[in-house]
Amino acid sequence: MGWHQELLVGFDLETTGTDPREARIVTGAVIEVRAGEPLGHREWLADPGVKIPADAVAVHGISNERVAAEGEPADRVADALAEALVSYWRTGVPVVAYNAAFDLTLLSAELRRHRLPSLADRLGGTAPAPVIDPYTIDRRADRYRRGKRNLEAVCAEYGIVLEAAHNASADALAAARLAAAIAVRHPEIAALGPAELHRRQIEWYAEWAADFQAFLRRKGDATAVVDGLWPLRELTPEAV
Questions:
Q1: Residue 150's domain spans which residues?
Q2: Beta strand 72-73 with 8-15: parallel, antiparallel or unpaired?
Q3: pLDDT tens digits for range 94-115
Q4: Are residues 109 and 25 in contact, defined by beta-carbon separation less than 8 angstroms?
């Protein structure tokens, strides 16, 4: 039985912006999935402590008024999310996140911002793993397919129903189902154990970033830099 038929944990954040080192958590979801069926589900609504820009509200539909009235303190949400994820990693259960480098970097920045233990600290000094990122895997397994690679487009490619895009719970469930669907279509992915798949994704992401950076520079942006670290980017002092 491959990893895609075992317990997976979908994870997603909706946020105040697109820079993972600066944006804040608005909602977060963690959902247990086995054989495509949800087993358990937790979702948090945070008051991010800053105004949610109008363009972010337009994406996820969560207003400043709602977070002020219903949201938990941002530090409490970040801590709860980190503890939830770490509880799965401690037992070897893969955490699935679409474009994991965004969500995990953002969560890590929030932990630092609120002076909370990092993911690695909670894991006794080891990096969080295994992580399964359908974005990174699909881009490697079907690298020449044309079209967009956002969650909605890739779900459509693999026949996964995304019930409400940019809803943290819906996106987390879709990511877990998508990971399994990719493994079914690509047996060479299914054959890898979670630890080996995690290691391969580090390599695949770095290779993609180097290629994309070279492409941008050939097109005239001589200073283009594409971060090749996965699943966590380095945090800068500005993230505090």
A1: 3-219
A2: unpaired
A3: 999 999 999 999 999 999 999 9
A4: no
